[in-house]
Cytoplasmic protein (Stemphylium lycopersici), 308 residues
Amino acid sequence: MPPHLHPRSRMTTSLFTSTLMISFLVVAAPHILPCPVDPRTLADSADPTGENRRRRRRRIPEGEAGEDAMSEERRRRQLIAERLAAKRECPVPKPGGLIGQVLGVNDEEKEEQPSSIMQRGARTNTPIFSIPNLMANRHFPTNTEQSITAMPTESLTKAQRMSYRIGRGETGVLTFEPYKSSILPLWRFKNPSIARKSSSEIYKRFLEYNDQDDFIGMDMSRKFLQMGMTRAKRYANHAGGRKYDKKTGEQLEKSKGHEGMEEKLEASEAFREVWEKAKAHEGYVQKKERFMKEQKEWDREEKNEAEE
């Protein structure tokens, strides 16, 4: 009888095969065959915040057990809305960039703000100067809104004050806070009437800073007046406001007779008149001289400390 047909050989083969099958069931089957899973476990795995587990443990008060009781879904949505409310303080950026907003580019889609600026400031305890600026609304601030962005509420440290540079022209006008966020909402030059009103409001802010002995605020106001003059003049000289070629960087030739040219020239002159008045203001001249002297001494002390 051949060896592979012997009864002992067949029994050994059968035992080996059974051992392999049992090993497969013990080791591999749990990873291949589906097993029942509690659907709540799947929901919890997709909910890293743990909201589902807290919602299951939440007990509805007896007074809300009737037909008028808030549903669990509405309760969950309300809780999420309350948590996200403090993060909804920045308006959606409007297309067209900064200049497009200043010029009042028309947007076909307008998103309603969930609440007024006063309500958002009260709810989030946001400092007055950091409340979202009103530029996205593309309208002149009302008296109430002007009081919101009237003046910065947090005083700068001496190191922060000394970091400010008068610079050349409009240097730092859109970067130095909190003054940038305080004055920017007042800055407009779409047409002559808007430019006159804007320059008047900025000059009023200039005088308020003078009363507070705040030279940086005065100089930032002066820079916004100068920027209104130069930006309006650019739109008067170049259709669309582009002064340099986008690809080569070379200065483009001035255009003539384009739409809005006369309006922008008049708007530029409106800003120029107020800008000249601000530069010649006695308080501004005195505070500028004092600030530059103080800053020079500060820079010298900082340099000596660094060398030591």
In short: The CA atoms of residues 60 and 69 lie 9 Å apart. Residues 127-235+267-307 form one domain. The two ends are 103 Å apart (CA to CA). The first helix runs from residue 7 to 27.
